[in-house]
Design brief:
The chain has 11 helices and 8 strands. The chain is an alpha/beta fold.
């Protein structure tokens, strides 16, 4: 498995000519009401006097998505689609308020160097690389070496997602073993960590406390546990951020837990994410659809409603927090 080579970022990758024989658009896969709602939520209204002091309030970052998996979803409907077409359509579906995204590559065994290079040649796109806990059986010393090499990439801003997932039948010992190895690698490389934790908070917390320095930057991705149970981690890791996805728009028990977290989490300790292509906002859900980075604005709207504040407050803090966590400049733009 060769080390991924990155080419100089070029905006032109978003502007690929479309042949008459291949006219399928990403927007055509979504109902017109879906497109209308995305644009409506992304339209920033004139600032009130109270909010006029906020800077960069009209931009946001999707801090956790999977562009490679979105492309696979896109091709299920448009079998002959190219990656360039997908990226172009994705940009057209994104408002000017979307400043960028962090795309997560967590299946090293399926790594595609060409896809990696083209995705990370797109302005506004950054990456995290890791090994998902559900697929640790494929993890080898070679995988570890490969992820270590990836950490040197100029657009790679974190190691992850990694962690523990006891929600399915699994080898807990093996998951813990791989988690430990990758945490040590992240610390040795000086990289922030993206953590996946499902029904394993006790073990996950213990391992983090054992191996990770107190002031390390950690993104606890799509946390679905109770808010009270995360208090110790928030205290022990002052730069740990909680990821909130569109799951917050649903009514299941995990969704209710996320709503509780969204209501009580300090404004400087959360991140907004889509986890696209997963977790379509409930209001946009339809068969065959999948979430895209611009839909993170709907997550912001839901969090704002839960907290009883203006959506721009949520967008502002989420952007500041994303900059703190991933080092993405406030001036960066998805253009």
């Amino acid at each position: 498995m060769a080390f991924p080579k990155l080419v100089k970022p070029q905006i032109s990758h978003f502007h690929t000519s479309r042949s008459a024989s291949n006219p399928v658009r990403l927007s055509s896969l979504l109902h017109w009401k879906t497109v209308q709602q995305i644009l409506q939520f992304n339209a920033i209204q004139p600032c009130t006097k109270l909010l006029s002091v906020l800077e960069n309030v009209d931009s946001f970052i999707d801090t956790h998505c999977h562009l490679d998996r979105m492309f696979k979803c896109f091709r299920k409907t448009n079998h002959s689609a190219t990656l360039e077409q997908f990226l172009n359509d994705l940009r057209e579906m994104s408002s000017t308020d979307l400043a960028g995204c962090v795309t997560v590559f967590c299946d090293p065994v399926d790594f595609d160097e060409n896809l990696w290079s083209k995705i990370l040649s797109t302005d506004g796109v950054f990456a995290a690389v890791g090994q998902h806990p559900k697929s640790v059986e494929s993890f080898t010393d070679h995988t570890l070496s490969f992820i270590r090499q990836c950490m040197g990439g100029p657009r790679v801003c974190a190691l992850g997602e990694i962690g523990l997932d006891y929600s399915v039948r699994c080898n807990k010992y093996r998951q813990q073993q791989v988690f430990r190895q990758l945490l040590c690698l992240a610390v040795s490389c000086g990289k922030p960590i993206v953590v996946h934790c499902r029904e394993a908070l006790k073990d996950c917390s213990a391992i983090l406390l054992e191996l990770v320095p107190k002031f390390w930057k950690i993104h606890l991705h799509c946390y679905t546990g109770k808010f009270a149970e995360i208090q110790d981690l928030l205290v022990n890791f002052p730069f740990l951020f909680i990821g909130i996805t569109a799951l917050v728009t649903y009514s299941s028990v995990p969704a209710q837990n996320m709503q509780e977290t969204a209501k009580h989490i300090p404004l400087d300790r959360f991140l907004l994410e889509t986890d696209g292509p997963y977790f379509m906002p409930k209001s946009l859900l339809k068969k065959g659809s999948f979430s895209i980075p611009s839909m993170v604005s709907l997550v912001a709207a839901e969090v704002a409603q839960i907290r009883g504040v203006d959506r721009r407050v949520i967008l502002h803090y989420s952007r500041l927090n994303a900059t703190c966590m991933y080092g993405i400049p406030m001036t960066y733009s998805w253009e």
